Amino acid sequence: MDFSSKLLENAVDQVSQLPGIGKRTALRLVLHLLRQPKEQSADLAQAILNLRMEVRYCKSCHNISDTELCEICASPKRNKETVCVVEDIRDVMAIENTGQYTGLYHVLGGKISPMDGVGPQELTIGSLVDKVKAGEVQEVIFALSSTMEGDTTNFYIYKQLEPYQVKTSAIARGISVGDELEYADEVTLGRSIMNRVPFESSLKG
Ligand SMILES: [Zn+2]
Q1: Which stretches within 162-198 are classed as H helix?
Q2: Distance from the CA of 12 to the center of ligand 1, in angstroms?
Q3: Which key words tag this protein in UniProt (predicted)?
């Protein structure tokens, strides 16, 4: 792409680094910004900076949070004996929307994916194991999407937890194979959490 302006080229380069945004889309977005009042670009830039510089993660579940302990972990109404393992905040939001789940979460921050250079150390698995080791957790529910990476991650964690005799279960399958949790509809997702099965039997399916 030939640009008549270095400033324009630089902005397009930056925007096109976002996932799913090619150069042409980036150019369209940048030109759109140029047509808007300058304040709008300033607000956008500031919001991104604030988010990036000030974002915090719950010290217990690792979900994005404005406070040291997120609202869910801090709530006395939540059942602290059940922990649902998810990939990121989108899954927490999807499961919360079902209104069916009253336990806590553990946000991994991704899935094990050697192809992308993501190993167990890059995720919050150690902190989950520590939590189980500490003894308050009675059940761990695996709610990662049923992709190869999701399955690998579930199995890795299952093996890590095996010595501690904690109950492990998996959300009912067959509704969203290969889909992300966030795309499952609320009723189906709620049902699949309620109808979860022991993790061992989910392996045979
Ligand atoms: Zn939390």
Answers
A1: 186-194
A2: 36
A3: DNA damage, DNA recombination, DNA repair, Metal-binding, Zinc, Zinc-finger
Q: Which residues of 66-99 are buried (b: 16+ CB within 10 A; e: fewer)?
A: eeeebebbeeeebeeebbbbbbbbebbebbeebe
Q: Please list the pLDDT of the chain residue by residue as tens digits (205 residues).
A: 788 999 999 999 999 999 999 999 999 999 999 999 999 999 999 999 999 999 999 999 999 999 999 999 999 999 999 999 999 999 999 899 989 899 999 999 999 998 889 999 999 999 999 999 999 899 999 998 878 899 999 999 999 999 998 999 998 765 444 455 555 677 788 888 888 888 888 776 5
* Residue ranges, CATH 1.10.8.420, the chain: 6-54
Separation of CA 86 and ligand 1 centre (Å): 12
User: Which tokens is 8 given?
Assistant: 């324009």
- Matching CATH number, 6-54, of 3.40.50.300, 1.10.8.420, 3.40.50.10540, 1.10.3720.10: 1.10.8.420
As a CATH number, domain 57-204 is: 3.40.1360.10
pTM of the model: 0.81
Q: Which residues surround ligand 1, an ion (CB under 5 A)?
A: 58, 60-61, 70, 73
**Ligand 1 center to 67 CA (angstroms):** 9
